[in-house]
Amino acid sequence: MNLKSVAIALALTASLSAQAQHVMDVNTKKLGAPVQSTMYGLFFEDINFAADGGLYGELVKNRSFEFNQPLMGWRAFGRVDLKDDGPFERCPHYVVLNDPGHRERRTGLQNEGFFGIGVEKGKEYRFTVWAKAPKGDSQIRVQLIQENSMEEHQEFVQQKVDVKGTEWKKYEVMLKSDRTEPKAQLRIFLSGKNPVALEHVSLFPKDTYKNRENGLRRDLAQALADVHPGVFRFPGGCIVEGTTLDTRYQWKNSVGPVENRPTNRNRWEDTFDYRYYSDYYQSYGLGFFEFFQLCEDIGAEPLPVLSVGLACQFQNGLDAHAQMDELQPFIDDCLDLVEFANGPVDSKWGKLRADMGHPEPFNMKYIGIGNEQWDDPYFTRLKPFVEAIRAKYPDIKIIGTSGPDSEGKMFDKGWEAMKVQKADLVDEHFYRPEAWFLGTPEAKAKYGNCGALRYDSYDRKGPKVFAGEYACHGAGKKWNHYETSLYEAAFMTSLERNADIVHMATYAPLFAHVEGWQWRPDMIWYDNTRMFKSVSYYVQQMYAMNKGTHVLSLLMDKKPVAGQEGQDGLFASSVFDKDANEVVVKVINTSKQAQPVALNLLGMKGESQATTLTLSWSGSMDDENTLDNPEKITPKAGTAKVSAEKKNSVLNDQVPAMSFRLYRIKK
Ligand code: AHR
């Protein structure tokens, strides 16, 4: 403990005696609304290099030479030709390495990866390439190199590949790294006399999540699984819409053999010129099949979101969109997706799923139509989608959207339209400051309905709520820090208490590469060899792993504990976990003083010991985990005594200042 923390601790202790006890009545006698199994999920979007360069295990950038500048990411040397009549019709480009013309000269290629190629000591990397030797057998040398090293040799691992025959074939060699190096590069020399043609040059860690060849980066995928998410929304976000309609995410381009998935320009390449990445593309190697498979692996309901025929409304005028008589292909994309996910193996799209290795259906139940659309251009287009999906797949639940704002005229109009169209759920987005999440009087005056009472007043008869994108963005400090994560936890008591209407919630965005981000805060950060989970990650995980099965009423002076006047910055909610037969109580203290709390467990008798999990500050509200200190702030396990009092059991505790404490009590 440093001096500052000691001073804070003393001040807190001194103020304790002055604090009146806050008595919360938790009614364990009556189960409230069931908590949906979809609660507390994840939202994946390829922003911040979340797919290529992130979750997707591929280490080679522009592996198929299909970026707009076909050699971007590559350094070609010697005599290299670029051709476009390759073996994969949707990725036609390839290169030919020709004899350099002198025995002391060289021909080849070097790939820079995504901010370098991250390799780890002792691990193996699978190099694959499609190649042919059009003028007779030849050879290439494949190396992992450290270009800026002072060692005699730049390469630290090398393998030769004999290329035989004039037909395209796939070649594979394993490269075992003798070091951990986040910024290696891949170098390929032509070492035979004859030319060699190369296409789809790929390098993957052998050790991927579930050991799949076209797999995911293990540590990042495991972090997703460790949340125990109820739902997984993909593939975005704005990339569903595209800056232009033809660069929207098209799922049909993301399935089938990876070699033949066309590269797409990422919508986040040029959204912010002050965080510009000219090389931000989508290989679609992490495509819809892989997303469905990931959902299955981590036990989350898949929730794909598809284009409604609108290019990003922020970036375009009305003429950029598909017109009403041009919507059929977009509607077909939705219908065909259900067949791809759920259809029999003898249906067109079901067969493709089976051919890709998954004959069993993925059991998709939800579809989002449109990302963050608004107003009449959206409502009119949505209608024929809803009609077509209802007619063919009446069991599929349709998710519409209330647009980019969390309140206001357009938001209200969106909700009204979703009610008229009978959407099953409405996807709401809110990236808002601290005051909004706390629901301060000033924020209510400015925004309207915000804070932890937000959903208490919602219409119970309309569509359900999907809080599809949200995060607390600190005013003037739009990055991850402890304080905003704590306020997210406080706000989430509202999601929990209103389980009858709030059926899904996903924080956003999920991933960010420390060298390639466009948007923050984010839930999980990484470089090429390391990662850390933000405090917001732990907040989400604490909710997801303790969501229970039914809401329990929790009141203080007969009012919900939602940071209301006289509640001293406390927020709380409670659920019952039928499977574990436990009462779960979440208390968030957003005040700068510890708060004495009594949990009156109505309907419970006797004494026992509760387990606790506490997320608490480390001295500064701006603190956060980092790559160098990934576990600076993590939830800590503990216990608390439950006493037998006259009428019922009572748990007395001091909830530390600025903390989130969760109690589990056996019933
Ligand atoms: O999460 C980042 C972006 O925020 C999403 O792409 C979009 O839906 C929202 O505007």
Provide an overview of this structure.
The structure is a single chain. The chain is an alpha/beta fold and 667 residues long. It is built from 11 helices and 34 strands. The strands form 6 sheets. The chain has a 9-stranded mixed β-barrel. The chain has an 8-stranded parallel barrel with strand order 2-14-17-18-19-20-21-22, surrounded by 6 helices. A hairpin with a 4-residue loop joins strand 28 (570-577) and strand 29. It is globular.
What's a concise summary of this model?
This protein has 667 residues and is an alpha/beta fold.
Task: Give the cofactors and ligands.
Answer: alpha-L-arabinofuranose
Q: Distance N terminus to C terminus?
A: 37 Å
Point out poorly predicted stretches.
Answer: 3-17
How many strands?
A: 34
Which structural class should the secondary elements be placed in? Answer: alpha/beta
pLDDT average, as an integer? 96
Largest sheet: 9 strands, mixed, barrel
Number of helices: 11
Radius of gyration: 27 Å
The helicity comes to 10-25%
General shape: globular
Strand content: 25-35%
For the largest sheet, list the strands in their spatial order.
1-26-28-29-34-31-32-33-30
Summarize the topology.
Layout: H1 3-16, E1 22-27, E2 41-43, E3 74-77, E4 79-83, E5 94-98, E6 108-111, E7 117-119, E8 124-132, E9 138-145, E10 155-163, E11 169-176, E12 181-190, E13 196-205, H2 218-225, E14 231-234, E15 264-265, E16 281-282, H3 288-298, E17 301-306, H4 328-342, H5 348-355, E18 366-369, H6 375-392, E19 397-401, H7 409-420, E20 425-432, H8 434-438, H9 441-447, E21 464-472, H10 482-497, E22 502-507, E23 511-513, E24 524-526, E25 531-533, H11 535-544, E26 550-556, E27 559-560, E28 570-577, E29 582-589, E30 595-602, E31 608-616, E32 636-644, E33 649-655, E34 659-666
Parallel strand pairs: 1-30, 2-14, 2-22, 14-17, 17-18, 18-19, 19-20, 20-21, 21-22, 23-24
Antiparallel strand pairs: 1-26, 3-6, 4-5, 5-13, 6-12, 7-12, 8-11, 8-13, 9-10, 9-12, 15-16, 24-25, 26-27, 26-28, 28-29, 29-34, 30-33, 31-32, 31-34, 32-33
Helix pairs in contact: 4-5, 4-6, 10-11
The protein binds alpha-L-arabinofuranose.
